[in-house]
Amino acid sequence: MMWSIIALFAYSAFSCDEFCEEPNRTAIVVNFYSLETEEPASVAVKVTGIDGVVADSVLYEYAGHATVLLPINPGADEMQFIFALAEMPADTVIFRYSRHVGLVSKECGCASYAQLHEPELKKNEEIENSITKIEVTNPNVGTVSYRQGILNEENIRIFY
């Protein structure tokens, strides 16, 4: 009887994975490009969330970034972010998407996936925008793993 209890305990302890090893967070993968060369570029950018789950949160702070990950809000159909380059005017970009929930795995649960629509760059009335062009390269927003550095393919290209 005691061996049965030990076996049951061992089975429940080791069959249930405490840590999800699969990508289970949904994020828009944004890469920066040079408008002149149309090549990937690392930019010193500060990215701040405006609304939703990232309201007033600084996601990236003026370090050289070629790629940033922007989380989607599983409870809304749009997110707004401010992109600010050092010594250039800040731009606000609105990302709209259609959401759907999908099962990642038994251990990891569900994730909110998204289908991107065309992003909107808010026009600055007094000055010219720093962002010159935004392209959707893959509208299917999938899961990423921040811990393991696993990214899906690029969703958005932002040209400066």
| Strand-residue proportion | over 45%
How many strands in all? 12
The outline comes out as: globular
Uncertain residue segments? 1-17
Most strands sheet: 7 strands, antiparallel
Number of domains: 1
Order of H and E elements: HEEEEEEEEEEEE
- Rg, rounded, reads 20 Å
Seen as an oligomer or otherwise, the chain set is single chain
Distance between the termini: 70 Å
Helix tally equals 1
Task: Give a written overview of the molecule.
The chain has 160 residues and is mainly β. The chain has one domain. It has one helix and twelve strands, in the order αββββββββββββ. The strands form two sheets. Strands 2, 3, 5, 6, 7, 8 and 10 form a seven-stranded antiparallel sheet that branches. Strands 1, 4, 9, 11 and 12 form a five-stranded mixed sheet that branches. It is globular.
Topology:
Blueprint: H1 2-15, E1 25-33, E2 43-49, E3 58-65, E4 67-71, E5 78-85, E6 91-105, E7 109-116, E8 120-121, E9 133-136, E10 140-141, E11 143-144, E12 156-159
Parallel strand pairs: 1-12
Antiparallel strand pairs: 1-4, 1-11, 2-3, 2-5, 5-6, 6-7, 6-8, 7-10, 9-12
Brief sketch in words of this structure:
Helix content is 9%, strand content 46%. It is mostly beta strands.
Keywords:
single chain; 160 residues; mainly beta; 12 strands; globular; disordered N terminus
